Fold this sequence. Notes:
Order of helices and strands of chain B: HHHHHHEEEHHHHHHEHHHHH
Helix content of chain A: over 70%
Number of strands of chain A: 4
Structural class of chain B: mainly alpha
Strand content of chain A: under 5%
Largest interface: A-B, 52 and 51 residues
Helix content of chain B: 55-70%
Structural class of chain A: mainly alpha
Radius of gyration of chain A: 22 Å
Order of helices and strands of chain A: HHHHHHHHHEEEHHHHEHHH
Number of strands of chain B: 4
Oligomer: heterodimer
Shape of chain A: globular
Number of helices of chain A: 16
Strand order of the largest sheet of chain B: 1-2
Amino acid sequence: xxxxxxxxxxxxxxxxxxxxxxxxxxxxxxxxxxxxxxxxxxxxxxxxxxxxxxxxxxxxxxxxxxxxxxxxxxxxxxxxxxxxxxxxxxxxxxxxxxxxxxxxxxxxxxxxxxxxxxxxxxxxxxxxxxxxxxxxxxxxxxxxxxxxxxxxxxxxxxxxxxxxxxxxxxxxxxxxxxxxxxxxxxxxxxxxxxxxxxxxxxxxxxxxxxxxxxxxxxxxxxxxxxxxxxxxxxxxxxxxxxxxxxxxxxxxxxxxxxxxxxxxxxxxxxxxxxxxxxxxxxxxxxxxxxxxxxxxxxxxxxxxxxxxxxxxxxxxxxxxxxxxxxxxxxxxxxxxxxxxxxxxxxxxxxxxxxxxxxxxxxxxxxxxxx
Amino acid sequence: xxxxxxxxxxxxxxxxxxxxxxxxxxxxxxxxxxxxxxxxxxxxxxxxxxxxxxxxxxxxxxxxxxxxxxxxxxxxxxxxxxxxxxxxxxxxxxxxxxxxxxxxxxxxxxxxxxxxxxxxxxxxxxxxxxxxxxxxxxxxxxxxxxxxxxxxxxxxxxxxxxxxxxxxxxxxxxxxxxxxxxxxxxxxxxxxxxxxxxxxxxxxxxxxxxxxxxxxxxxxxxxxxxxxxxxxxxxxxxxxxxxxxxxxxxxxxxxxxxxxxxxxxxxxxxxxxxxxxxxxxxxxxxxxxxxxxxxxxxxxxxxxxxxxxxxxxxxxxxxxxxxxxxxxxxxxxxxxxxxxxxxxxxxxxxxxxxxxxxxxxxxxxxxxxxxxxxxxxxxxxxxxxxxxxxxxxxxxxxxxxxxxxxxxxxxxxxxxxxxxxxxxxxxxxxxxxxxxxxxxxxxxx
Lengths: 370, 445
């Protein structure tokens, strides 16, 4: 930028990138309108608080599910379209474990293993919830993480490792194949159709008073947000303060240089899949816990939103994925102020496309932290 | 002087076309396509006979694979322009198809439908649908110019999902512009204009029980003498029209591919920097290629749905894009002949095949009733009894699931072991003459 331009400050910047300036203006207009609605009483504070809380829950799930995707994206440089189905696999394996822990003895194994499915299984009698059966939930979470980590490594061994020297597009196509095979193996094994998990039970909730009304905060929602925050914090510590984290960041930055420096790249890749897979599986389990139901397309339906979170935060940035997830989550709920429910996801995708066009490095400024 | 002068420019053009056809038929590509088509027909005739179909049933089976092969051939040819020629990775095929079909429906559906259209003549609807897909393609091509391959993949997939969700939204289920009532039917789907083949054969094509007109009754009488029902005749006429459309698209793309425009595209695919260094505005070429591909996807979608007379958004889920991709990879990206072969092979063998296998196996082997669940089937393995597992795998829904597993595995296998497709390296060279082998003609298609 020349002296003269920099003297213009904001205006100069706006002139240099008119599209960005317009987008800023549009964003500000929305905020201003929101402020006006709040002021004039067109939008109640309770409604707004409700949107923010729901948005945070959604955002934490997108963010947590996105961390694993961001890790593999930065280390292996390809968009893994099988990531959504890893989320589903995690949720299913974890919930089978939770069902078995909670229901063994009272229910037949076949009905527990199929999460009901073709058999009748009264989830009210089973009574799974964080407060009723904390042990089963913890067991489920651990199994979900462990199973998905192992599954991710196995897939890497069979599919992606023989293709290390190929382009990102070839790997992407292979990952589409993995996604199809994985999802329909699950359908084959467990049969399609959504399953009730905790839905229909009364889970304890607290009412938080906001102004004249109150919003209800459930135990499962709190579990999702707290556990997700803890897992993200743990990921941060691993990436920032361990040798492994340094090696991962070095590899994300420049793989050849990392190998020359003596970093065992294959071992780092293996650990990345383990860590990323575990986080992904845990995310799947927690999302299903919060929703109370589970379908075989859970992860696939989330995939584009997870991508949106990861892209918004800057592809390959783990912290970006967390921030991007929360932004996508909150803004998608907040957009209900202007849009009907059926077009909310459309708005989220439009935001993602716009970010890719205007600022492909993401809002975090393209810091590739790992 | 020669014949040509006496017959004038039209005659010489006819001669040129005839020469083109003659030279094409003598190429190895044409023979390949012909042999492949005959093999498929032979295979499915045998399959139908094994299933105990009567003559009408056999003819109808062949119609079905012809129809599906034709639809996929057009879609794969369209994708090949984008990926095979210009190297643009578009995984939003279903979205461009949807825009084509829905625009056609809104333009041409009768105003009396539950979800009414404008009632314009069908050709206007088809042209409008193709144009709409082109316009969306141009919009999508803007990111295509500046994005890496994987980003473009995500953008196109998101775009296709946006399209699908907008058509599905209750907001547009019924809406009106001014005083004109329109609607996409939302999640209920909408009826399309009358199948154009019916208008050829029936007096009142809109009515289910309409008597056939002169042409219709003549054709139906001849067919019923051979034991073929009128609906199968209609279907075959439609499928034949589709095959002609495939031929036209193929011819068009061959022309484009061998034109200076096509050579630049191939150069872009081989090495974009070199093409730019030679003074070509490669971005413009990529946009054009993307738009052409999207237009053809719109057309493919229209020809696919028009025969069924009904459209809903579940028909444009991302899985359909992956179908087209598998077909393209089977045939080999970069080859037009391969695209047709891939489309036909995918549609008949991978898409339809598993169900025929299921019907034959269950028809000839008594596997007993399918157990309730995979758990029961595997538990029976303990007693060394394999039949419950087989029966479970062969149930209707499970064959559908396994078919998609197979699709995923085939995709992984091909991309790992044969990324160049079944036909091997058949990329057309960018130069007008084949520099590697001067002895033979450039006959790649």
